[in-house]
Design goal:
The chain is α/β, with parallel strands linked by helices. It has four domains: 104 residues, NAD(P)-binding Rossmann-like Domain (Rossmann fold, 3-Layer(aba) Sandwich); 34 residues, Double Stranded RNA Binding Domain (2-Layer Sandwich); 59 residues, Orthogonal Bundle (Helicase, Ruva Protein, domain 3), CATH 1.10.8; 131 residues, Tetrapyrrole methylase, N-terminal domain (Cobalt-precorrin-4 Transmethylase, domain 1, 3-Layer(aba) Sandwich), CATH 3.40.1010. Helices cover 36% and strands 17% of the residues. The strands form four sheets. It has a five-stranded parallel beta sheet with strand order 3-2-1-4-5, with helices on both faces. Strands 10-9-13-8-14 form a five-stranded parallel beta sheet, with helices on both faces. Helix 5 runs antiparallel to helix 6, helix 6 packs antiparallel against helix 8 and helix 11 packs parallel to helix 12. The longest helix is centred in the middle third of the chain and has 18 residues.
Length: 375
Amino acid sequence: MKPISPKPVDPVRKRRPARVEALASLPLFFPLKGRKVVLAGGTDAAAWKAELLTAAGAHVHVFAEKLDETFSALLSTGSVSGRFTHHQRPWAPRDFDHAAVAIADAVSDGEAQAFYCAARGAGIPVNVIDKPAFCDFQFGSIVNRSPVVIGISTDGAAPILGQAIRRRIETLLPASLQDWAVLARKVRAKVLSQLTAGAERRRFWERFTDLAFSGRETGEMAESGALEPLFREASQVSAGRVTIVGAGPGDAEHLTLKAMRTLQSADVILFDDRVDDTVLELARREAKRMLVGRNGDGYETEDTIGDRMVRLARQGKHVVHLKSGDLSSSGEVETDLQRLREAGIPTSVVPGVAIAPYSASQRDGGLRFDDVAVG
């Protein structure tokens, strides 16, 4: 079967052709260390933006005749990274020279428009606080494990929701992740020099990431040689492997964390027609997606699918077979495992969320997972 990415059109419903859903805005990460930023206004809101900008290493030029108490205290304390220069006067067009970004807290639309036009005239991206009509970009909620930084945006529609998402993500990320990211920066040059581009480097970083999320502390791993086994394993020729992943009812909300990590390491993903597009969007972008089983050309047997998995694994691929439903009650899984083991293919199983049994009439008429209970 010819691979189709990400999902083809099948008889049940139309599949979306894009790997990435529509974006309200493009998330970018903009380095500001040592760069000039123009900030107009001495309010508490402007102070928060100033603190954020200097945390990124910016040199923030503050134009305000009067500073609120919060802003005065911030300038007295200083920043953990960047620095401030306070100009006790209104901004002028010349102040935008050589600036990277311009921010303002404007009282009126007229004041906002004047600042916006001046910044745009200087070719500088601009944000006027709480005035979307005068913004080239917006600030979102941040999860800070620098150098790991996660930005969350609701495109201005629901800032409180963005903050709630940030709190949820904070609970999922180990406190040691920041140290692992720092360690990754230290060993990056060695990875580039000792491991070839592609599979070797990816195997190293996949194992490194497993350690980062294992709860272990970094300690002196780089200096003590504790990472050397990862380099040796990564440089070994991979014989390929197969992971059978339970997709549960078939949508992303019921996917386990281990299943998501597995999708991120896949070279090829085989999926059935009940797996939702949102699940495939969690996979590594470079992975090939292949619809198996029922499709527009007919029905593919389990033997044919098994032959495909063996063939792909022998090419050195990590093959992920996404199967909807409950793997624990699937005889097909046992058949697949036996076939793969007989072929000498390393195999593992990631169980999915179980679903309640359904009636014969549902089976004959085509099961809709929206109607089943999740257990």
